[in-house]
Amino acid sequence: MIDMTGFFASGPRRAAADIEAELQWAAAALNHGRPDEAERFARNVLAAIPQHAKALYLLGCALLRQNRASEAVPPLEKAARALQDPEVETQLGVALRDIGRTEDALLRLRRASKRRPAYAQAFHELGYLLFSLQRAGEAITAVEQGLKLVPGAVELWNLLGVIHHCQRDCARARAAFSQALTLAPDHPGAHYGMGAVMLDEADYAPAAEHLRRSLASNSGDAQARLKLGVSLLELGQTEDAVENFRAAVRSEPMAYRLALTLISGSARGRFWLRPSAAAKHLGLSLSASAPGISRGRDPFLWQRHR
């Protein structure tokens, strides 16, 4: 995109129009996944008006999207003081979380969740952070408070399902994912979550269908491939199952040993009495495999809402 800064005409009216154009370009660049361009446009505005609150916010967001959270905090703090806006405070909370200032992040996110009109992402980020801190009860409370105010927030329903599932409450998890899918029938995270719940409940055929629908949006999702593979094994569709295990390992080599564990743990996978036989069938070598994830812990499950 062409930088028009050098073509600005003189005069306050034209200058104001040029500033607004830069802000719009910055916002559009962020929306289209080009944070480096957004940073440049925001800095152009700040070069002319150093305390421009919206430009500070857009700059902070652009830096955050480039994994430069420590640099994002100062402009976001200035923008939050000037705007008193829940969206700005939420992004500041995310930046503080990313640099390890957890208590400050919680304070900001709680403040953002109290502003009205309610901003759904504030509750989402607060719930996510509490859950990542293993404070599941508080996380559920935060998410449910958000849903009372914004009942149509799909990502909140999805996060609620994830938390309940990780708490082994499959009934509540299923209900939450069902609500998310009612609101957004093609939501890949909700389909993944529902598939994972149904797999845990040995409801293999619908689990496979939900996992396929999740993969339709992200064919390289190794965890969805692994769960689909397990479902297909239990349904007796061995070749399709193995192909999904192969695809999972191709997209994520760290999933190799977990794939072997899942295969050997299946009633229909026990015809492979030795790991080397399973590895041969997967088209891989044990010596070349990467260490996997221990059984009984699925660190990917609760990240699906992100």
Structure description:
The protein has a domain at 13-83: Tetratricopeptide repeat domain (Serine Threonine Protein Phosphatase 5, Tetratricopeptide repeat). The model is unreliable at 1-10 and 285-306 (pLDDT under 50). It has helices at 12-31, 35-48, 53-65, 69-83, 86-98, 102-114, 120-132, 136-149, 154-166, 170-183, 188-200, 204-217, 222-234, 238-251, 256-265, 275-282. The chain is built from 16 helices and no strands. Helix 3 runs parallel beside helix 5, helix 7 (120-132) packs antiparallel against helix 8 and helix 13 (222-234) packs antiparallel against helix 14 (238-251). It is mainly alpha-helical.
Give descriptors for this structure.
elongated; mainly alpha; single chain; disordered N terminus
